[in-house]
Design a protein that fits this description.
Ubiquitin-like (UB roll), alpha/beta, 18 helices
């Protein structure tokens, strides 16, 4: 029996939760308490959840966020999104083949309605991630009545999936703290304020012209909220790509992957290939390695990755091939992903023939950027009542920027309500701009001249907002410009009259794992290097031979581990110590974890690009849409009517950007395109719930 669950993790706590049995297609399997249906299936090695009604194509997990229907299954006879429904003992799960049958209706059944509940609040905050929590803290501290809703079972947004330490300012946004810890800190703080009410597992459905917001509470009850002010802090959704094989089970986004690995503690893949070199893709690759998953490679279509260099360097040091100026040509396989084919691109981002390579993998991770979830903000503004946006719903940036964005929006709302009479501090605005800035200049690596005592070597070469290393150094030997923390940190030899104490705090706290210590005290010709390591302690043992590498992952030396230091104060960062020749000691940046990458035997067989699926829900191809564009269609509503593109369960969230891209490829200016009408609802809702059918009503039972 396949068991893909994680029982150990270097950062995440793994509790011993009770096991119970359920049934998949009549086969008895084991689930862990607290798992969704999807995670339980993947834990048992099941990747195909359904077959599309149009062409019988296999489908599996895609968004893991309830916003599409790729993971639909029949659970005890009802069609259910398996990524959102918790598994229960004895549940009978079947793959959905084609369209589900409508449940029978008892014409004699009793039908009872109840009026839709209406709730008035001063401020409605949509989204309980870093921005929403920061805003709620500002408002709650002033006693302002708020309702904070989030569609997950706990607060924190994507912070609850982040095992790495965060960048930014120690003073302003808890830099140097892990995302999972930061989520708990913010939740504990917001729950101190009695004026802030929190509804979890509650989804905003639509903003209406009568200035009410419809929400689905706990998947069971439809409620209308009438707020004075709306703050949208709903985060972002991932962009997608169109290529042959893009709908195979095993092709999905980084958010889905991190949800499965870091929330559900399921290892859904053995060999992962990543498309996209922004922070999302780079971080997902690191999380994969921490979960014991092999990262076959990462490609980026631009000439350099868009994410932080320190994130890229972590992967390169650990042995992950990173190929820039490359694109994906196809995901290959019959029922699910078996390999991926890539190629180098030219200056116009067109694949160069003869550069194709095929790699064996079972999962292709798409991490090609994010779009703001700002529909509620835009509708509220359209209907003329006060609305704000914060975090990624306002502008895509890092979590530290989202926290400060929410803080500022909270104070602005308090001012509008007459609970704050001042201006937004200039220092806040400046900090916000710094935190959401993109990576800046990259400098060549340089090293301190000193070769006595002990000293830190800083391998952080790119301008990014971050200052934990300078904040923790007790002797102020590391400096970051206090007026602009984007400046790279520097070891200040002129301050080194007492010498570095070797306290290791800078090595431990650096979010990019970009600081090492070089100790010349015992043997100046063979100094000891201290390297941060965030993997299971048993991965590296004293006496074991390791490959030490530079910042780009090139081998510098082979050495044996002197010691492995793991103490509670390090917050799960292990310190590896090994001796190396002094000629390379300052260049050592990390150690290699992966050594061999498999290539698939098969060669790339060119497929017709028009076969790529644009609308996953309705299986509409690029060729079908491209033909209509060439026939003169400029209204996406017309494309929707003819092809059904955009009419599926995801509500056109995935395919709309791809349709716009097809227009661009065909040379149609954006000014000529008529976008499709945006309609409620944000997700599908059973009609019985919207109608107010009471629980227990016969019609309510069949309305699912």
């Amino acid at each position: 029996m396949i068991n893909n669950r994680l029982y150990k993790h270097p950062i995440l706590p793994v509790s011993d939760r009770p096991l119970f049995n359920f049934y998949w297609h009549g086969q008895e399997l084991t689930a862990r308490e607290g798992e969704t249906i999807a995670s339980a299936l993947l834990a048992n090695g099941i990747r195909i959840f359904s077959y599309h009604h149009r062409d019988g194509a296999p489908q599996g997990i895609f968004c893991a966020n309830g916003q599409c229907a790729q993971c639909l299954v029949l659970a005890d006879g009802f069609p259910i999104k398996s990524c959102m429904e918790m598994i229960r003992p004895g549940m009978k799960i079947e793959p959905l083949i084609g369209l589900p049958e409508l449940p029978s209706v008892n014409p004699e059944g009793k039908v009872e309605f109840e009026p839709v509940q209406e709730v008035e609040v001063t401020v409605l905050i949509i989204g309980g991630g870093p921005a929403g929590l920061a805003a709620a803290i500002e408002l709650g501290s002033r006693g302002i009545n708020c309702l904070l809703i989030d569609d997950k079972h706990r607060l924190g947004g994507k912070l609850v999936l982040q095992t790495h330490r965060f960048f930014g300012s120690v003073e302003a946004v808890y830099a140097g703290t892990r995302g999972i810890v930061l989520a708990t800190k913010l939740e504990q703080e917001v729950r101190q304020f009695p004026s802030v009410e929190i509804w979890l597992q509650t989804t905003a459905l639509a903003v209406f012209s009568d200035q009410k917001v419809g929400v689905l509470k706990e998947g069971k009850k439809y409620i209308l909220i009438k707020p004075q002010i709306i703050l949208t802090a709903a985060g972002a959704r991932e962009k997608s790509l169109a290529f042959p094989g893009n709908t195979l089970p095993g092709v999905y986004g980084a958010g889905a992957f991190q949800t499965l690995v870091n929330r559900d503690l399921v290892r859904p893949t053995e060999k992962l290939f990543i498309v996209g070199g922004g922070n999302v893709g780079l971080i997902a690759g690191y999380h994969a390695l921490q979960a014991g998953i092999k990262v076959v490679g990462l490609i980026e279509v631009m000439s350099e990755v868009g994410g932080y260099k320190v994130h890229k360097d972590k992967l390169a040091r650990l042995g992950v091939p990173i190929l820039t100026s490359h694109t994906i040509l196809s995901a290959n396989g019959q029922a699910s992903v078996e390999s991926v084919t890539i190629a180098r691109v030219d200056e116009q981002f067109k694949p160069i023939k003869g550069t194709e390579r095929t790699y064996a993998c079972d999962t292709v991770l798409i991490a090609v950027g994010l779009d703001p979830v700002n529909e509620f903000y835009l509708k509220a503004r359209e209907f003329g009542f006060p609305a704000y946006a914060a975090g990624d719903a306002e502008e895509i940036a890092e979590a530290s920027a989202a926290i400060f964005s929410g803080k500022i929006r909270g104070l602005e709302i308090a001012r509008d309500l007459g609970q704050y009479s001042g201006e937004i501090p200039d220092t806040w605005e400046k900090t916000a701009e710094i935190l959401k800035s993109k990576p800046g200049q990259t400098y060549p690596e340089g090293y301190p001249e000193k070769e006595t005592g002990i000293l830190p070597v800083i391998h952080c070469l790119q301008e990014i907002p971050c200052d934990p290393c300078s904040a923790v150094c007790p002797r102020k030997l590391i400096e970051v410009d206090k007026n602009d923390i984007r400046k790279t940190p520097a070891y200040c030899e002129e301050n080194d009259s007492r010498g570095c104490s070797g306290c290791e705090r800078c090595v431990v706290i650096c979010p990019g794992l970009a600081i090492t210590l070089v100790d010349y005290r015992q043997n100046p010709d063979w100094p000891e290097v201290t390297i941060p390591f965030e993997f299971l302690k048993e991965t590296i043992n004293p006496g074991q031979e390791i490959i030490l590498v530079d910042i780009d992952g090139r081998e510098l030396a082979r050495s044996r581990v002197n010691s492995v230091k793991s103490i509670k104060a390090n917050d799960r960062t292990i310190l590896i110590k090994a001796q190396v020749p002094k000629e390379v000691a300052k260049k050592v940046s990390g150690l290699r974890l992966q050594t061999e990458i498999e290539r698939a035997d098969e060669k790339y067989v060119e497929k017709i690009p028009d076969e790529a699926i644009i609308c996953r829900c309705e299986r509409v191809t690029a060729g079908e849409i491209r033909k209509l564009i060439r026939d003169g269609v400029r209204d996406i509503n017309e494309i929707k009517t003819i092809t059904r593109a955009g009419m599926g369960p995801c509500g056109a969230k995935t395919c709309t950007p791809l349709v716009h891209r097809l227009f661009r490829e065909e040379g149609v200016p954006e000014t000529e395109i008529i976008d499709q009408t945006k309609r409620p609802l944000f997700i599908e809702v059973p009609m019985g719930i919207l109608a107010g059918l009471q629980p227990g009503s016969e019609e309510r039972k069949s309305s699912r």
